[in-house]
Amino acid sequence: MSVIPKDYNGFIAVLKRDCATCQLIEPAIFELTRALQLQVHSQDDPSFPESIADVIDERKLELSYRLDIEVVPTLIRVQAGKETARLIGWRRADWRRLTDLPALGANLPEFSPGCGSKSVEPGMPEKLAFKFGDTTLQARRVDLATEQDEHELMHERGWSDGLPVVPPTEERVLKMLAGTTRSPSEIIGVVPPDNVSCAIEKVAINAVMAGCKPEYLPVVLAAVEAACLDEFCMHGVLATTYFSGPIVIVNGPIAEKIGMNWGHNVLGQGNRANSTIGRALQLVIRNVGGGRPGGVDRATLGQPGKVGFCFAERERDSYWESLAVERGFSADESTVTLFAGGGVHPVGDQKSRRPESLTRSLALTLRTVYHGKMYGGRDALLVVSPENMRVFRDAGWSKARFRQALEEELTVDGREVLAGVAGIDEGMPAYTAEKRLSKFRPGGLLIAHAGGGAGMWAAVITGWAGGSAKGSLPVTVAIKS
Predict the structure, then answer these.
(1) Structure confidence at residue 467 (pLDDT)
(2) What is the DSSP track for 187-199?
(3) Fewer Cβ close by (within 10 Å): the C or N end of the chain?
């Protein structure tokens, strides 16, 4: 929408009183009004400049927004309602050339820089975009009473995961939406368990509430898209009494671009991107899909990662191909892998310096996933630290060789794990007695590299019902800008 009449020919000057340069060049502005067709717009005080009779009140900043004014003073030449030239700040020679007034500002300095336009002050671009821009929000607006606490309101209405959330004002949501080139109205999936169609705008609202920065939004969108896929079975992940929740693993260039943690304390707190991306996904599932504890979410005990669990793989100095590459993507693609995981189980082997020994140590813990006598029914995510990685690198073991050795260690005689063996009623059914049993289904063990450079540690994260007809399969999707 143009704010300049189509038949206007002349100049537009945008000024503000709270600008030393604007005050300095007032005599030149007065000269221009006497010699040319000039509109003077004042952003903060319609009585400034005092020497001009018809100053246009620009305190609403609509013209500044629509003409993308970043600095005042700005002088714009207009022909037939269209801008043909622009000057910012004061440079006497340039102003004389543009106006064709060779004596303009004779008593003024050659140069004086301008000041920031009021339309670009912190928070103002988002406010103006909502007020005057083409983007409109479809979400219902909730108005607060004068003395009502916005944070308490969001808790009372059940929009929080139990922690404080950021109020999703129009300005904040529009700023979040600037993190993607995709349309706010685009439907990216149907969110379980209530199977509600979810537009990008809804994801942006929950990303604001989670504390995300706009540059995180493409990752959050990919995570939501992954959670909506049938094979991930988000409804089942919620409805089970198991500990599971969606774990987000990020691969590719975007991880470093947005400052994700792949090093020290990678599975813990302290990094904004890691903490808020996983939380945003969970808030979408809660607030859009209706997946709330005590409702469809029937976890007996749950685990802290259900607030949000997200980390980036350590790819920069990794000896092995990444999780995403193993799953068919290229190393320069940015991806999200979603895994329905429970809590973190540490593996502490401080002595193994041979790959054979370390593989057996890792397998010993992996055998206990879900239950030490249950085989083939659960997936797992193994996170290998840099010191673990060094053992395999020094021995020249590829990831494929490690997998093969690990699979051998994770295969047992069915008679060893039958129900009732060792006085434990839990276990495999009698028909498996004569079989060799693998702990995990083919493709059911994910391996990622992450963590700080010191410490012989690995982590095992148990999955939920991997590969079964009603279970969850890990899914990987590309991140779109």
Answers:
(1) 62
(2) EEEEETTTTEEEE
(3) N
d(CA 381, CA 445): 6
- DSSP string over 328-357: T--TTS-EEEEEEEEEEEEEE-SS--SHHH
Question: pLDDT grade, residue 2 (50/70/90)?
Answer: low
Q: Are 291 and 285 in contact (CB under 8 A)?
A: yes
Query: pTM for this structure?
Result: 0.82
CA distances from 285 to 172, 234, 267, 364 (A): 20, 9, 21, 35
User: What are the C-alpha distances in Å from 208 to residues 127, 211, 256, 281?
Assistant: 15, 5, 21, 11
Q: How confident is the model over 282-329, as pLDDT tens digits?
A: 999 999 999 999 999 999 999 999 999 999 999 999 999 999 999 999
3-state secondary structure 249-265: EEECCHHHHCCCCCCCC
CB 21 within 8 Å of CB 74:
no
Residue 1 clears pLDDT 60, i.e. is over it: no
Can you name the residues that pair with 310 across neighbouring β-strands?
248
> If residue 56 lies in a helix (H) or strand (E), which one and from where to where?
strand 55-57
How many Å apart are CA 384 and CA 201, to the nearest integer? 37
Look at the block and give the residue holding tokens 């540690």: 457
* Type and span of the H or E element at 39: strand 38-42
The DSSP call for residue 113 is -
Dihedral (C-alpha) 41, 47, 52, 55: value to the nearest 10 degrees? 30
Tokens of 457: 């540690």
DSSP 8-state secondary structure symbol assigned to residue 263? S
